[in-house]
């Protein structure tokens, strides 16, 4: 018997959300499927949807694998997810506002001071700065996994610059091109309003010194960045300028953009540059990516930076353990979505348990991302487990461990037809004058049979995510 929850089938019967997809896939000849897959790849290539993996040799720009079989949520399922995501987003922003001010949650003994103040993502330069509307993390990506019909878990939070929203939008666009009949036969919530919602969100957090329609820019590290396609894609959709650090300068109390018509004042910077590179006068002096003096303007209220420098302390994998406590402390509520049980290897008893059960656990670097620097114990060789044990012993505080979850599966087109593959979900929550969640998100799929790693850099692909309208 399949040990994993299959999102389409229950006891051999098609579950209600997928009722209209059973006939669709069952009646699709292999020739048509291969033709449509080739058409999808051609569209991705023509549009230029790539991601970059450097340091592995060969061409770093790759097409992300796209699976044509959509993932489907009912409206009831989505409403529950929405409640949990909005709740978590409010708590994370309240935490950031607190720890960069009085630190009441630390004073109350609900989270260890060292976990915050000695965290490499904590930025002392941000202490005492109150951004417009008190929002620190303006785009929050919550990674969610499912293990049963009603069992959803938050795997991690992304409060800095969560990527992948361009795939969410392009997945939908390509599916509508390939299979227009599916969208006539199914009432599916749209996602194409995301870019306008993002623009309105950013405009709503313009600084008080802005007395006109705010000028918004996207700050990118440049074409060599792995997510550069997304930066340019969003700038184009929002109708704002895509800039690099050299395009901006500080003069007086404001940030200015160089244009052919002369300097133009910038009010909101949606930055896709890491904290340590955004201002060489405040952070890394050797940075060529940022804007000298940017933090002085930010501190004086002359510009909004989204998301705020230092927001990463809220999505650290060790701090993740305390998000349910944040929800109780700041909101006075019980969490709607559960955390995955987590052992902090910096604690003696937790480390002992992890070392004793290493072959059965997933171990991650506290600041790791992209599926790198982790061990999936049940899928690892004895040599890999032994090697990781040495790394763990050398720096225990750099790791957390979690049980190997039975991630749900979704039907996926593979070479031999349709087969279940493991999936996760990253919805995107926008925080400004209002909090808005797009009905959908990025479903990532582990295309290798049995694999639990969905990251594109590790061979994973993407799917369109449907939320059925009532």
Automatic annotation (TrEMBL):
Signal peptide positions (record): none
Pfam families hit by this protein: CP_ATPgrasp_2
Domain Circularly permuted ATP-grasp type, first and last residues per copy: 70-446
InterPro entries (alphabetical): ATP-dep_Glu-Cys_Ligase-2, CP_ATPgrasp_2, UCP005522
Gene3D superfamilies per the UniProt record, alphabetical: 3.30.1490.270, 3.40.50.11290
PANTHER family noted in UniProt: BLR5612 PROTEIN (PTHR34595), SLL1039 PROTEIN (PTHR34595:SF7)
Name this polypeptide is given: Circularly permuted ATP-grasp type 2 domain-containing protein
């Amino acid at each position: 018997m399949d040990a994993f929850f299959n999102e389409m089938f229950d006891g051999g019967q098609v579950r209600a959300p997928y009722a209209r997809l059973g006939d669709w896939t069952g009646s699709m000849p292999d020739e048509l499927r291969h033709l449509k897959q080739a058409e999808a790849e051609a569209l991705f290539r023509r549009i230029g949807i790539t991601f970059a993996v450097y340091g592995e040799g060969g061409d770093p720009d790759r097409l992300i694998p796209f699976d044509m079989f959509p993932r489907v949520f009912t409206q009831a399922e989505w409403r529950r997810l929405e409640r949990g995501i909005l709740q978590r987003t409010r708590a994370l922003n309240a935490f950031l506002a607190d720890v960069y001010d009085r630190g009441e949650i630390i004073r109350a003994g609900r989270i260890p001071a060292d976990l915050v103040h000695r965290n490499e993502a904590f930025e002392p330069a941000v202490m005492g700065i109150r951004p417009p509307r008190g929002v620190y993390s303006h785009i929050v990506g919550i990674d969610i996994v499912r293990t049963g019909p009603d069992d959803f878990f938050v795997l991690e939070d992304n409060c800095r610059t969560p990527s992948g929203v361009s795939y969410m939008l392009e997945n939908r666009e390509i599916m509508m091109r390939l299979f227009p009949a599916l969208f006539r036969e199914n009432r599916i919530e749209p996602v194409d309003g995301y870019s306008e919602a993002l623009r309105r969100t950013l405009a709503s957090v313009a600084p008080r010194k802005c007395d006109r329609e705010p000028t918004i820019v996207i700050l990118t590290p440049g074409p060599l960045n792995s997510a550069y396609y997304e930066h340019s894609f969003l700038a184009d959709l929002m109708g704002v300028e895509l800039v690099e650090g050299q395009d901006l300068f500080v003069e007086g109390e404001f940030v200015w953009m160089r244009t052919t018509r002369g300097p133009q004042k910038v009010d909101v910077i949606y930055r896709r540059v890491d904290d340590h590179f955004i201002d060489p006068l405040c952070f890394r002096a050797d940075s060529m990516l940022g804007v000298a003096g940017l933090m002085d303007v930010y501190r004086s209220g002359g510009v909004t930076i989204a998301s705020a420098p230092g927001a990463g302390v809220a999505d650290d994998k060790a701090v993740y353990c305390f998000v349910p406590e944040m929800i109780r402390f700041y909101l006075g509520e019980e969490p709607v979505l559960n955390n995955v049980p987590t052992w902090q290897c910096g604690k003696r008893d937790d480390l002992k348990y992890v070392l004793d059960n290493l072959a059965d656990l997933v171990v991650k670097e506290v600041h790791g991302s992209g599926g790198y620097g982790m061990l999936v114990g049940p899928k690892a060789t004895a040599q890999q487990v032994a090697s990781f044990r040495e790394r763990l012993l050398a720096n225990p505080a750099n790791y957390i461990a979690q049980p190997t979850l039975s991630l749900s599966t979704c039907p996926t087109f593979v070479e031999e037809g349709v087969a279940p593959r493991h999936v996760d979900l990253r919805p995107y929550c926008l925080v400004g004058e209002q909090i808005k969640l797009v009905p959908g998100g990025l479903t990532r799929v582990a295309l290798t049979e049995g694999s639990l790693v969905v990251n594109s850099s590790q061979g994973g692909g993407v799917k369109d995510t449907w939320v059925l309208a009532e």
